[in-house]
Structures
1.
Amino acid sequence: MITEPSAYGGCLLGLALGDALGAPYEGGVPERALWRLLGSTSQGLPRWTDDTSMSLDLAESLLACRALDPDDLAGRFAASYRWSRGYGPSTARLLKRIRQGEDWRLAAKAIHPQGSWGNGAAMRAPVVALHCPSDPDTLVLISREQARVTHAHPLGVEGAVMIAVATQCALQHLPPAEVIRTVQKNLHEPQMLTRVETVARWVERGVLQEAVTVRRELGNGIAAQDSCATAVYIALSHFDHCFEDMLAFVRAVRGDVDTISAMAGAIWGARHGVKALPVTPIEARDDILSIAQRLYERAQHRGKV
Ligand code: F2R
Ligand code: MG
Ligand code: MG
């Protein structure tokens, strides 16, 4: 299977659109009220949040270092940190410590001894699939390594593997049942596997579940185990629907809407390409497409696409 350059733009822009268009609906009343104040650029465009910021940092790091360099990545994450991007509380504390000179290996375990199980490493994992679109073993290794810089907890790491594998399968145009089988083969944590087994059953049945059922059975929270399987299910079950309908479904599921939309948006965009995405202007749309193009050219140069 030859991956088209359009799939790269579709994936990275799908992630950013999901994030920017989902952010106004994330969380409860106080979070939404705050985002009404923070959620537009000076030109009035929808702003993206930590999800896209960390994804672009990972992309730029892979491009600059030609491989994963965790020290370079930690430095970029820390330099890009802005309070107004709505980072998770533990990730915010971690990045401030790294900025003050602490080694990320110590900082990542100083806040939670096992590391964070938030979905922050999963939300940027589609970029790993753009770095290695055709090599499943390297994909899993790099997904784990990039996750540990901020999310060392086994569930935080496994969420990243799940989203990276699903994105790679979407780039390869695998059908939904095969995507979910490939995801299952790469997971080990029972809490993740239980959720993915539910997704596999629903995908096999082929009937779109109610949003309330998805929320109840797969979750809608900031933990990796409560959002990654949710995003994979929503993307796979909307392969035959338009992007806007998929985002409307995420809004109906509620909760961590920006991040579930970003992860589902990346998988959907990898499958359908940039032309299938809405033309809605968002912050730095052209810059995002140019980074996607550079990732494509690098993968092409390495003979990976
Ligand atoms: N922070 C938000 N949303 C809040 C409002 C944003 C709004 N748009 C605005 O700015 O007004 N979203 C972001 O957080 C989610 C998760 O990201 P990440 O990087 O995984 O966060 P973090 O801080 O690592 O973990 C989240 C919380 O989970 C608890 N936790 C994690 N690991 C734990 C452990 N081992 N033991 C106990 N608790 C643990 C902590 O309370 C963490 O703070 C994304 O949706 C992103 O968009
Ligand atoms: Mg966010
Ligand atoms: Mg979020």
Note: The pocket of magnesium ion (ligand 3) is lined by residues 26, 256, 258-259 (CB under 6 Å).
2.
Amino acid sequence: MPRYDYDLITIGGGSGGVRASRMSANFGARVALIEERQLGGTCVNVGCIPKKLLSYAAHYAGDFADSAGFGWSVASHDFDWARLIANKNREISRLNGVYAKLLNDAGVTVIEARGRLIDAHTVQAGERTLTAQHILVATGGWPVVPPIPGAELAITSNEAFHLARLPERVVVVGGGYVAVEFSSIFKGLGVRTTLVYRGSQLLRGFDQDLGRVLAEEMAQKGVEILLDSNIERIERKGAALALRFVSGETRETDLVLYATGRAPLTHGLGLEAAGVALAANGAIKVDEFFRSSVPSICAIGDVIDRIQLTPVAIAEGTALANTLFNNLPRRMDYGNVPTAVFSHPNVATVGLSEKQARERHGEVEVYVAHFRPLKGTLSGSTERVFMKLVVDRTTDRVLGVHMVGTDAGEVIQGFAVALKCGATKAQFDATVGIHPTGAEEFVTMRTPRSRQA
Ligand code: NDP
């Protein structure tokens, strides 16, 4: 008789939890996964996937406008939000089913319930009490709204995916990923959009040029961007919302979306009772092998608050499954994790910002290109592409590759491999470009910014 019901019980069926569970089962472990909502977690249900679908929808506005210079006349382009949302929901349901099938095929028992820790080896799943040798907490995160008066009148990204109708006017609060992505979506779909950010430059933490260039491009597309600005209170005023800013200014809008970060979802899980140590922000503290202060309890993904990105949670899940059930202790390499922001235009980056590179490597050489892409010559679009390389002057290693422009994520993914391999600027220069593309600019930059006129 095995000592425990399962070798692994995972609480949370998002990207990280599903990957760790499936792989562990493939390595021969007896695995149960507990999830109270839809499988797939934030990414599949209220994150990456539906966001990208809405982003595609919003891009058509620009595409219709661009097409005229190429000879097209698009007679009418009515937009139907309800149809988009219904189609999006159908695709998300399909993906929920794919996740269920993947888990089932791997032999993972899926339990639809709320999971709660009882002790180091015991979990309550609804009415059932189950035991496991290892417990994995992969419960992710949840949007945070600052506690200002009227905060309950605002929505978060969770609700934005299910709006019954598009508002005429929206105010988006925040200057990070979700804020710039949703501002671009709303604007593209024809909503009068205002972004309110408390700082002076969007995308804090990214290379500084990216936030500056993105703000210029978004403003060019008609998003009103209020920097160094914040909302003090929200009140209902008939069908509208009345906003009062810290500056004293007031204005009305139809919808307020808070995109002010996400907090680890650790509340009410019985973690404290089980003796699991939490950081000040509620994240589960783990060691390099994802073990919490209770060795049989592990955690991965947004709930450990290292890098809140789906592919990172998946990689952590892979490392953990190998460590626990494949006799291959694996650490996660958090270096050179590429990332893209699906604003319009896209932003993508891998490696160090110019500031980080100077702090860590001293002398750096910076190469930039800022140009109107070929398509713009006929479309008439004023959108420009920005590209930047940060190079270690001593070793010639490329430390950072940054871009604002169409499909930046697609471009940077390839360069992320080069950085992982430790590519030098000389190797970039020795690479033949693909012509005519925007991306070829990354292998044809010859004059550092410091020596440009
Ligand atoms: P971010 O941490 O990216 O941005 C939060 C923003 O809200 C910041 O601009 C922050 O300002 C601001 N903010 C925080 N608190 C307040 C406050 N009290 N009042 C006003 N503004 C405030 O969080 P997001 O919600 O945008 O996204 C959460 C995470 O999800 C991201 O960090 C990312 O890891 C992930 N994500 C990834 C995506 C992708 O891969 N494309 C897409 C969406 C999300 P300040 O800069 O001053 O701190």
Note: Residues 111 and 379 are 53 Å apart (CA to CA).
